[in-house]
Amino acid sequence: MPVAMPPTTPDALITENAAIPTWFGIGGRADRFAAPASAAALRRCLEIDPALRVLGEGANLLVDDDGVPGLVVALTAPAFTGAEFDDDGVVRVGAGADLPRLVVESVRRGLAGLEGLGGIPATIGGALVMNAGGAFGQIADAVARVHAVDRAGRDVTLERADIPFGYRAGGLRDLVVTGAELRLTPADPAALRARLKDVMAYKKASQPMADNSAGCCFKNPTLAADLEDVAAAGTRVSAGLLIDRAGLKGVAVGGARVSERHGNFVVTAPGAKARHVIDLMALIVRAVHDRFGVTLHPEVVIWSRHP
Question: Where in the chain is the domain with CATH 3.90.78.10?
Fold first, then answer.
């Protein structure tokens, strides 16, 4: 049932027992949910619950069947979803803006820097928090600065040099990202369209894009020792390759299954539960470690009320 927030923030409601949409299409609910309509309403949400969780596109998220405690917020209001392009190639964009749409628009305008992120479903905020990317680039390469609020509701602006971006990590998880400035480079629109087309064709050919999944389930590990017929120590290798060679493609737990097309994708069928995915991920970790001595770490974020 909707619950009005205090009178200081009439532009937001907190809804109890709210659904959390994810690309897996499964999982539990949020004890409380809000979509603040302004920066002031977001700060009020942080006053109510400094440990609140931010929901982006839900494309890299698994919510446990029992749901999550506390407050979940989504930055879907117009105050957080706009994008402004300057003549010098700087894009000022809200954290709730859709990354795929921004990729297409930047290509249309002849601005290079995001086309390698084609096919990655995310909001800008979510992409920054996890430094979204793949074989064709990462969002960190286009960042000029990031705007956020800390858990005390104070505004924070971080220059690119001050952000500890790493592999699938932005170093921003203690903040609530509200927007960013991206620096893109003028380029030939036709060439950018061709590159984006190539990126999308590669993903469609190699990934189960039509299935319910959260994209790559595990981070690509860096080998601590030489691995025969795979790579030398210090090399980052494909988690999907290791999962495939461990014989796990097609393996299922309940309604969750390792994709036959790409070993690093877990897909769900009707009737699947979040616990099926969690248990299958644990099975994958054990099997890859037993076969190769390599420990996989999840790229998918799991929300749960259990430790």
Answer: 208-303
Residue 224 predicted with pLDDT over 80: yes
Q: Which of 168, 181, 217, 257 is catalytic?
A: 168
Tokens of 75: 């930055």
Class of the CATH domain delimited by 2-78:
alpha beta
CATH number for the segment(s) 208-303: 3.90.78.10
In the set 57, 115, 181, 299, the catalytic residue is: 299
Residue-wise pLDDT for 135-153, tens only, equals 899 999 999 999 999 999 9
Residue 303, pLDDT > 70, answer yes
Q: Among candidates 52, 55, 46, which has minimal Cα distance to 69?
A: 52
pLDDT at 307 (0 to 100): 80
Centre a 10 Å sphere on the Cβ of residue 250 and count the other Cβ atoms it contains: 10
Topology (CATH) of 82-191? 3.30.465
What are the Cα distances from residue 228, in Å, to 14, 237, 268, 293, 295?
Answer: 54, 12, 33, 12, 16
Q: Name, in order, each residue with C-beta under 8 angstroms of 166's C-beta and a sequence gap of 6 or more.
A: 131
Pairing of strands 29-34, 68-74: parallel
Active-site residue flag, 299:
yes
Catalytic residue among 29, 43, 57, 216: 216
Phi then psi for 266, rounded to 5 degrees?
A: -105, 125
Q: Is 168 a catalytic residue?
A: yes
E strand or H helix at 287, and its extent? Answer: helix 274-292
Q: Is 209 helix (H, G, I), strand (E, B) or coil?
A: coil
Concerning whether 181 is annotated as a catalytic residue, the answer is no
Residue 11 pLDDT: 52
The model's pTM is: 0.92
Task: Check residue 17 and give left, alpha or beta (phi > 0: left; psi -120 to 50: alpha).
Answer: left
Question: pLDDT band at residue 182, thresholds of 50, 70 and 90?
Answer: very high
